[in-house]
Design a protein that fits this description.
With 425 residues, this protein is an alpha/beta fold. The protein contains 13 helices and 18 strands. 57% of the residues are buried. The strands form 4 sheets. Strands 1, 2, 3, 4, 5, 16, 17 and 18 form an 8-stranded mixed beta sheet that branches. A 5-stranded parallel beta sheet has the order 9-10-13-14-15. A 3-stranded parallel beta sheet has the order 6-7-8. A hairpin with a 4-residue loop joins β1 and β2. The two termini are 21 Å apart. The mean pLDDT is 97.
Length: 425
C-alpha cells in the first residue's frame, strides 16, 4: 500500500482543510487520518504540500482521431497529468466526428491503451456537427459518452436545440453548447470595440454570444432539461445565467483561465496565440466572470485546451485558427494570479475544477475519504515555475503565457493510485 504523509488535505465537499495522512490500496483510498503508521507501506512525504481530489477538465480537444499532427490522446493526457488533471472530457470535433459508437469506442480504447489520465468522450449532438439530424444518444452513452455537444460549431437551429434537450432528458445528461450566433459573429476574429477598430481586425460582437445564451436558457426552462454553457465570456452572459438559476432553470456554466486573466488588450501585438473563440473581452467582462465564479453563477473552470500545430498559427491573425492550449498552464496561472492575491479561495478553485465537473457529468464523486477513487492532485503553493512552451508534453505550443513566471504548481498526479506525473524532489 502507498502512504501519503504530512499533507494539508483540502476537500471542500467535506469542509476538510487540515493535516492528514492518506493510505491508498490499489486504486482506492482506504484511510484518511491525522496520523497513520508507516508500517511496511511505500511512503511519499508531502510535508508542506496540499493534497486535493483530482482535478478534472470537462472541456478539452484531444484531436484524435483525425488531427494527430495537433495532438493525440497519448500526448494530450500526458499534458493533462503534468498539469495536475486526473481526468478530462474530450470534445467530438474530430475526423471522423464522434457521432457514432465506433468513434466513441475508439477513443475509449486509445485512452485505455496509452492514456495518462481518465478520458470521457463527449458525443456529438448532431451527425457530422451539421445541425441537421440528432445522433443516437443512447448508443453513444452505452459506448462511453458522458454528454453531448457540437462544440466548435454551435447548434444553430433553435428547433434542433429544443429536440436535443428533450431527447437528453431521457438520460439526464447535459447538452454542452458553444454559444455563438455565427451570423451575428460575422467572421469576427477579436472582440468588437474600439481596439478592433484601432487594429484593423474584424470584430466579433458580444451579442453573438448573448443571444444564444438566452435562447439556450429559455429552451432549458421550457424542456426541463440540463444545459451547460461552455466558455461564457461576457458580463451579460454571466447576468443571464445568474437570473436563470434564480428562476430554477437547470443550467450550469463554465469559464476558462484565459478569459479570467486576459483581455482584448493582449491582441495588440497581433499574436495569433491570443486568438480564441469566444475572443478575449474587456476588463469589465473579466471582472464579471470572476465575480460569477466566486458566487457560484459560474460552476466550472475548464481550459478549452485547443492544440494546433505550430505551423497553423504562423500566419496572419485573420487566417489563424482559434484556440490555445491550457492543460499544462491552468493551475499555475490560477494559483499565482487568482488564489495567491486572494481573488479566489483555494477551496473554490478545487470545487470548481475538481468536483463540480464530475457532478455535472454524473461521474463518480471525487473526495478525500475512505472508499473514494485514489485520483489525487498534489499542489506545492510555493513552487516557482516558468512557462516554457518548448517543454510541453502537448504536441502544440500555442499559449499566450510563454515566459510567465508563476508561484504555485502541481507536483504529483495520481490516477487510480498510480503516479502519472511527479515533480517531487
Amino acid at each position: 500500500m502507498r502512504l501519503l504523509r504530512g499533507a494539508r488535505a483540502l476537500d471542500p465537499a467535506q469542509a476538510l482543510d487540515g493535516p492528514r495522512d492518506l493510505l491508498l490500496d490499489g486504486g482506492v483510498i482506504v484511510a484518511v487520518e491525522r496520523s497513520i503508521p508507516a508500517a511496511d507501506h511505500e511512503v511519499i512525504d508531502l510535508g508542506g504540500k496540499v493534497v486535493t481530489p483530482g482535478f478534472f477538465d470537462m472541456h478539452v480537444h484531444l484531436r484524435e482521431p483525425g488531427f494527430e499532427e495537433d495532438e493525440t490522446i497519448a500526448s494530450g493526457t500526458a499534458a493533462a497529468a503534468a498539469g495536475g488533471f486526473t481526468g478530462v472530457a474530450c470534445m467530438p470535433n474530430t475526423q471522423p466526428v464522434n457521432d457514432d459508437q465506433s468513434v466513441t469506442e475508439y477513443i475509449v480504447a486509445q485512452a485505455a491503451r496509452g492514456g495518462s489520465c481518465r478520458v470521457h468522450p463527449v458525443g456529438a449532438v448532431t451527425r457530422g456537427l451539421r445541425g441537421e439530424e440528432l445522433t443516437e444518444f443512447s448508443d453513444l452513452l452505452d459506448s462511453g459518452a458522458v454528454a453531448f455537444s457540437d462544440d466548435g460549431r454551435p447548434v444553430a437551429s433553435g428547433v434542433m436545440m429544443r429536440r436535443a434537450l428533450e431527447y437528453s432528458r431521457l438520460f439526464d445528461v447535459p447538452i454542452i453548447d458553444h454559444c455563438e450566433d455565427l451570423v451575428l459573429g460575422d467572421g469576427g476574429v477579436m472582440n468588437e470595440g474600439y481596439l478592433s477598430t484601432l487594429l484593423g481586425l474584424k470584430g466579433h460582437s458580444r451579442v453573438a454570444e448573448e443571444v444564444v445564451v438566452m435562447r439556450d436558457l429559455l429552451l432549458a426552462e421550457l424542456t426541463g432539461a440540463r444545459v451547460h454553457l461552455a466558455h461564457i465570456s461576457t458580463a451579460r452572459a454571466v447576468a443571464l445565467v445568474r437570473e436563470a438559476k434564480a428562476r430554477g432553470v437547470r443550467c450550469t456554466a463554465e469559464a476558462t483561465p484565459h478569459h479570467l486573466l486576459l483581455t482584448d488588450e493582449a491582441v495588440r501585438e497581433y499574436d495569433t496565440r491570443t486568438k480564441m473563440k469566444p475572443p478575449l473581452r474587456t476588463e469589465a467582462d473579466r471582472q464579471a466572470l470572476l465575480e460569477g465564479l466566486k458566487d457560484g453563477t459560474i460552476d466550472v473552470l475548464a481550459t478549452d485546451h485547443a492544440p494546433h500545430h505550430p505551423d497553423k498559427k504562423k500566419v496572419e491573425f485573420s487566417l489563424a485558427p482559434f484556440g490555445i492550449v491550457g492543460l499544462e498552464t491552468a493551475l499555475p496561472l490560477l494559483l499565482d494570479r487568482l488564489v495567491r492575491p486572494g481573488h479566489l479561495t483555494l477551496a473554490r478553485l478545487v470545487e470548481s475544477f475538481a468536483q463540480a465537473p464530475r457532478r455535472i457529468l454524473k461521474l463518480p464523486a471525487a473526495g478525500l475519504l475512505p472508499g473514494a477513487p485514489a485520483d489525487l492532485t498534489v499542489l506545492d503553493l510555493e513552487r516557482e515555475v516558468t512557462i516554457e512552451a518548448s517543454r510541453f508534453r502537448s504536441l502544440s505550443r500555442n499559449t499566450p503565457f510563454g515566459g510567465w513566471t508563476l508561484k504555485g504548481a502541481p507536483v504529483l498526479t495520481l490516477v487510480g493510485g498510480e503516479v502519472k506525473f511527479s515533480a517531487l524532489v
